Structure formats: C-alpha cells, structure tokens
Amino acid sequence: MSPRKRAGNARAQTPALLKGLLFGPDGAAMSPTHTRKSGRLYRYYISQTAMKRGRSDCPVKLAPAAELERIIIDQIRLLLQTPEVIVQTWRTLRKQRIDISEAEVRNTLVGFDELWNELFPAEQGRIVELLVERIDLGAEKLDITLKIEGLTSLSVELQSQTTFQQAAE
Fold first, then answer.
1. What ranges do the domains of the chain cover?
2. Contacts of 14 (CB under 8 A, 6+ apart)
3. How far is residue 44 from each of residues 10, 53, 130, measured CA to CA in Å?
4. Residue 119: helix, strand or coil by DSSP?
5. Is residue 85 within 8 Å of residue 109, measured between CB atoms?
6. What is the predicted pLDDT for the residue at 1?
7. How far apart are CA 143 and CA 109, in angstroms?
8. pLDDT for 34-71, tens place per residue?
9. 3-class SS of residue 91
10. Which end of the chain has fewer CB atoms surrounding its CB within 10 Å, N or C?
11. Cα separation of 147 and 140, whole Å?
C-alpha cells in the first residue's frame, strides 16, 4: 500500500474532531497533523502561525489531539447538563413551536452522555460540529463557544430517537 493511501486510512480511522473549530491564542486556526514514532501514531493540532512563521512566534505550537479532544468532549458533556443550557435549549424549542417540557429536554440532554460512547467517530464528529462554534486555546485556558441552534437540533434529534425507541418496545 502506498504511503499516501496508508496516511489516508490512518486519518479515516482517527478523525480530527476539532478540525476547523480550534484556534490558537493569536486567533490563527490550528490544523490536525500527526507523526509516527516506533510504529505508533501520535496526533496533534498545530498552529497555522507555527507552520508559516516558525514555532518561536507562537505561544501554543502543538497540542496533543487525543488529550485535547477528550477535554473538549468532557466539557461539552458537562455543559449539556447545566441548568442554563437546558433552559435555553427548551426556550428555543418552544419558540419553534415544538411541544416539549423542560424535563424532557433535561432528560434528553442528560441521556446524551450515555449515548456518546456508543457513537461511531464520524457521528461524534458531526455532533461536535453541530454543537461547537469555536474553541479558543490559550496558554493557560480553553474557551468553548457553543451553538444554541445546534443544541436545539441535537435535542430534537435525540427526542425523536427516544420516541421511536419507546414506540418500538
């Protein structure tokens, strides 16, 4: 197999969840990259500034992908369970004339936490894109900006899956 095909397969097996969403402290995008050492794949996000101007100009040059993705997912899972996000999602759904109770929204968003680990990586990536507007990575902090319309879409999607599963039982 050619090195190009092999690299494509490796990327397909480990999608970059934060591609297009992650930005460094200077506002420049961070792109997924990887390296191999002793046959093991190491994935990173690298700052466009570091790539174009050299690493000395950039406060955050490389970020380990797996660790960063885990932190972001953990934060999203926690955020989905906060009263503010639940109420805001419920209000937005009500404005769209979707008849749903606040308790149903809460149960749906809390239930998402259990569902996450069962999803294929491509589906996890789609949900991250749906929920996250951008992630700003600083030397000392990480800011996640969520999309409220993404939350309402996810909530409707999960609610219809729950209704379908209950009907099937």
1. 3-168
2. 41, 43, 65, 121
3. 13, 18, 22
4. coil
5. yes
6. 55
7. 21
8. 989 998 988 999 888 777 776 565 566 788 899 999 99
9. helix
10. C
11. 24
Give 154 or 65, the one with higher predicted confidence.
65
Report residue 94 as tokens. 């009500």
Q: Are 46 and 33 in contact (CB under 8 A)?
A: yes
Distance in Å from the first CA to the final CA of the chain = 47
Alpha-carbon distance 75 to 115, whole Å?
16
CA distances from residue 98 to 45, 108, 120, 138 in whole angstroms, order as listed: 39, 14, 28, 39
- Cα 129 to its chain centre, rounded Å, is 6
Measured distance CA(131)–CA(146) in Å, rounded: 6
3-state secondary structure string across 10-61? HHHHCCCCCCCCEECCCCCEEEEEEEEECCEEEEEEEEHHHHHHCHHHCCCC
- pTM of the predicted structure, to 2 decimals: 0.72
Q: Are 166 and 106 in contact (CB under 8 A)?
A: no
